[in-house]
Amino acid sequence: MTDEAPVYGAPGAHYKAHFTVNHSQQEWVRDYAHTNTIEGYFSIFKRGMKGVYQHCSEQHLHRYLAEFDFRYSNRSACGVEDEDRTIKALKGIVGKRLTYRRTNEARHP
Q1: CA-based Rg of the chain, rounded to a whole angstrom?
Q2: 41 exposed, middle or buried (CB, 10 Å; 0-12, 13-18, 19+)?
Q3: Among 50, 86, 89, 92, whose Cα sits 20 to 30 Å from the Cα of 9?
Q4: Burial 65-104 (b: 16+ CB within 10 A, else e)
């Protein structure tokens, strides 16, 4: 769901459904179409980036977004409490290993 801004292009071709509201015509909600959810998500993301991380390179943006997506999708309002959220987070690390490039190694292209 988006407003009528042309920056969104033609998302209907990539998604099962796409609904819009026309803010320029003072339309804020139509049936169940509104932009409040995504505006709330972006608000939380922006506050987190300015308050917690303060900087994010484009190279790692997808990682920050994945973290915020996990936190938003597993919040108390969705019925996921601390213990369940912790278990889900720990299950997400199974089989993964974090490694660091040594300073004398060449960067990956």
Answers
A1: 19
A2: middle
A3: 50
A4: eeebeeeeebeeeeeeeeeebeeeeeeeeeeeeeeeeeee
Q: What is the pLDDT of residues 60-75, one digit of tens each?
A: 889 899 999 999 999 9
Question: Which long-range contacts (C-beta less than 8 Å, at least 24 apart) are formed by 66-75?
Answer: 68/41, 68/44, 72/41, 72/44
Find all residues with CB under 8 Å of 1, minimum gap 6, and list them. Answer: 18, 19, 20, 21, 33, 34, 35, 37, 38
Query: Taking residues 95-105, what's their average pLDDT?
Result: 74
Q: Tokens in use for 14?
A: 């990539």
> How far is Cα 68 from Cα 75, in angstroms, rounded to an integer?
10
Confidence at 108, pLDDT banded by 50, 70, 90: low
How long is the chain?
Answer: 109
